[in-house]
Amino acid sequence: MTDETPETSRSVTAALTEAARAAGYAPSVHNTQPWRWRVLPEQLELHAVRGRQLATTDPDGRLLAISCGTALHHARVALAALGWAVTVDRLPDPADPDLLARLTATEPTARPTDSAESLACLRARRTDRRPVSDEAAPTDALRTIAKAASAEGTQAQLLNSDQVLELAAAAARAASVEAKDPLVRAELDYWTGRAGPTGTGLPADVLPEHAPQTTVPARDFGREGTLPIGPGHDRAASYALLYGDEDEPVNWLRAGEALSAAWLTATRLGVSLTPLSAAIEVTNTRQALRRLLADLGYPYLVLRLGLPDRTGAEPARTPRLPVEQVVDTSAIEGSS
After folding, report:
1. How far apart are CA 56 and CA 186, in angstroms?
2. I want to staple 12 with a disulfide (CB 3.0 to 4.6 A). Which of 105, 115, 163, 286 is the partner?
3. Quick one: 35 and 129 in the same domain?
4. CB burial class (10 A; 0-12, 13-18, 19+) of residue 265?
5. Do the domain assignments include residue 41?
6. 109 and 129 share a domain?
7. Is the pTM of this model over 0.85?
8. What gap in Å lies between CA 203 and CA 110, rounded to an integer?
9. How far apart are CA 51 and CA 34, in angstroms?
10. CA-to-CA separations, 150 to 27, 90, 206, 252, 259, in angstroms, rounded
11. What is the count of structural domains for the chain?
């Protein structure tokens, strides 16, 4: 980049790089972080990394796309907070299905009034697998979280008590199916042990010390963690189903954006949000969840919502891959 290059061009390059870095805080299935960003002048590309896809649990790439969608929304939040308007082109190249999105910075714009709070929530958000408090989350807060997801083009249906029981049955069936599959168990062991890439996976301090007693079964990770949990049973937990009208990769990507929006909103409101994907991973139970939608939509993910249990220490943060492994700046190096 020469001295004659406008200041805004230098600023947009820096903003895109910073947004890609901020997207590293995004959640992903088993903390696989299956994305890589490529920073270009005035553009940012999001690529899937198939080497970090759950080949057995997620052969279609549904959970990979949802995970990458959370990173996409995180990047959008960061760019807005940095004062840049962007356009987003999802799955822009049919010949390259691993190019999931291209963000183009269009012009400087006023920062949202809540931009500092949004960035703080982005950094504070974490997955809490402990049972939630026995005090129910306010209904208005739950509706606000659902509305945040819907604003991203994916619906979030809050489930009634009867539907929660159907969800619990589906989750239990899915757990039974996956427990009997040695390839699924081996994959889970890989991402909860030390075999996965450094900076990924689920260490012991984010996994419960014993299986929580909950209405909807939590995932059995096959090993005990070190995260202490209280005596709660999730009696006051609420559940929502993220769903859409179609079941294609672009819908999964949008579902990830909706998950991120809902999660950041929940963090701002002091509500614990935990995604549950086991019942989505098994074909038969995913079809069972469709019945909760009267077969009018396709389920992408289950959300458990509630007030966090404050009786113990908060769970640790999951590790993150080094920035240089997820952000490629080779196209702009030496240009500023």
Report:
1. 9
2. 105
3. no
4. buried
5. yes
6. no
7. yes
8. 40
9. 8
10. 19, 18, 29, 14, 10
11. 2
Judged by DSSP in three states, 240 sits in strand
pLDDT score, position 3: 38
Amino acid occupying residue 267: T
Query: What CATH number did the domain enclosing 147 receive?
Result: 3.40.109.10
Beta bridge partners of 163: none
Neighbour-count burial of 298, counting CB atoms closer than 10 A to its CB (0-12 exposed, 13-18 middle, 19+ buried): buried
Task: With beta carbons less than 8 A apart as the criterion, state whether 242 and 53 touch.
Answer: no
Asked if residue 90 and residue 47 are part of one domain, the reply reads yes
Angle between helices 62-81 and 115-124 in degrees, nearest 10: 140
How many Cβ atoms are within 10 Å of 315's Cβ, its own excluded? 20
How far is residue 254's CA from residue 73's CA, in Å, rounded to a whole number? Answer: 9
| Helix boundaries (H) for the chain | 7-22, 62-81, 115-124, 139-150, 161-179, 182-192, 249-269, 278-281, 283-292, 323-326
Does residue 173 surpass a pLDDT of 50? yes
Distance CA 49, CA 34 (A): 5
**Listing from the earlier edge strand, what are the strands of the sheet with 35-40?**
84-90, 99-108, 43-48, 35-40, 327-328
Question: What is the CB neighbour count within 10 angstroms for residue 130?
Answer: 24
In a domain, 313, yes or no: no
For residue 306, the surrounding DSSP H or E stretch is strand 298-306
Please give the radius of gyration of the chain, using alpha carbons only, rounded to the nearest integer.
20
Domain range holding 57? 7-123+319-328
Give dist(CA 190, CA 184) in Å, integer: 10
94-126: per-residue pLDDT in tens? 999 999 999 999 999 888 888 889 999 999 999
One domain, residues 211 and 271: yes
Q: Is residue 2 assigned to a domain?
A: no
pLDDT tens readout for residues 155-168: 999 999 999 999 99
Residues 116 and 131 in one domain: no
